[in-house]
Amino acid sequence: MKLFAPLYERAMQWARHRHAPWYLGGMSFAESSFFPIPPDVMLAPMALARPEKAWLYAWITTLASVAGGVFGYFIGLLAFDAIEPWLQTSRYWGAYQTATQWFDEWGVVAVFIAGFSPIPYKVFTIAAGALSMALLPFTLASVVGRGARFFLVAGLMRWGGARMEAQLRQHIDRLGWATVALVALGAAAYLALKG
User: Fold this and answer.
1) Would the keyword Membrane be found if you checked this record's keyword annotation (predicted)?
2) Phi then psi for 144, rounded to 5 degrees?
3) Is residue 191 domain-resident?
4) Is the sign of the CA dihedral 144, 22, 69, 114 positive or negative?
């Protein structure tokens, strides 16, 4: 069933849109403080569609993401009491508790790890503010962690270029269904371990 091929074609069209860098910046900002979808899903096809602009897109993503992280920091610093009841009932409460534990153990290194990894960075930005972490080390760790991640994504797409796009186009449905299967298996394993 060809479900992912049309979605891939649409993503590549959006990636070539003249306003795509603005959308990428907005998504990167929002994801760092409240939006659930990571900017990689937009950065990768944009860098693949326009490899000559991959580094520019990585900079846009990094700077907007760090700005959003600072926004999340101030949410935690100034409004944590207002969002805590929602946070406790959301799926992010466990991640928030992990973030506070990591800050106790590793300090600012936790921000770098969250910035680079698929861990929800937004939770760490809010936790850093709620715990009154020093803003300058938080920002520097965010720049390094987020920058490393987004420049890696952009670099891989730039390196792969037309070859990678052709391979993705050919195998996108198999890759899409494999990803769905892995997510389902991961969710089942998580529920089995939790229960």
Assistant:
1) yes
2) -70, -50
3) no
4) negative
Residue 163 identity: R
Quote the number of domains for the chain.
1
Query: What is the token pair recorded at 82?
Result: 């207002």
Nearest to 60 by CA among 50, 10, 74, 120: 50
Report which residue type is found at 113.
I
Total-model pTM: 0.75
First to last CA, the chain: 34
Look-up: residue for tokens 């009154």? 132
Which residue's entry shows tokens 């965010």? Answer: 142
Q: How far apart are CA 90 and CA 102, in angstroms?
A: 20
pLDDT tens for residues 40-89? 878 888 888 888 999 999 999 999 999 999 999 999 999 999 988 988 88
Both tokens assigned to 142: 């965010």
Residue with token string 């920091």: 73
Which amino acid belongs to residue 59?
A: W
Distance CA 162, CA 145 (A): 28
Domain presence at residue 190: no
